[in-house]
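#structure-requests
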Amino acid sequence: MENKNYEAIIEAILFTMGESVELEKIADAIELDKKETQKIIERMMEHYKDDSIGLQIIELDGAYQMCTKSEMYEYLIRIAKQPKRHALTDVLLETLSIIAYKQPITKVEIEKIRGVSCDHAVSKLVEYNLVCELGRLDAPGRPLLFGTTEEFLRSFGVQSIDELPSLSAVQVEEFKQEAEEEAKIKMEV
C-alpha cells in the first residue's frame, strides 16, 4: 500500500463538500475500512481543538463536517456586513448599457443586439442589484422584462435614465459593427 496522507485527503474532502459526509463514503474514498477512517477523523478532531485553529470537525449522526468554530462567528459577521465592490467586466457593462438604453427589454432582445447569450451577464447584474425584473412581456412564453434599479442610478451618479448620455447614430452603428465582429470571432473559435 502506498503511503498516503489520509488526514490531508479527509480535510480536503470535508472542506470541499461543505456539508456532512458519511463515514462510509469517506472510508470508500480513501480506501480504508470504517474503523481505521474513524480513528483518523477522531485524531483530526482532537487536533482542531487547538485555539490557534478557527475550524473544527463535528460529527452529525455518523457523518462528519468541517465548519467554523462558534467563537469565530462575530468576525465572520463583520466581514459579511462589509459592502462588496463588484467589478463590472466589459461583457457586464455592455449588457448593462443595452438594458439601460432599451428598457424594458427581454433577454432575447439583448441577445439579438449582442449576438451571444446573455444569461450569465443578466444574472450577475441582478445579483449586483443594478438590474431587476420589471414584469413580463404580453407575448407567447411571457418572457421577463428587465430594467435598471435605483442602485444603478446611484452607482452611475444620475437621477434618472433620462440623464444618460445620448448616443449618436454613428456611435450606434460602430457598436453594432463591433458586436458583429465579436460574434464572428467567437463563432470561429
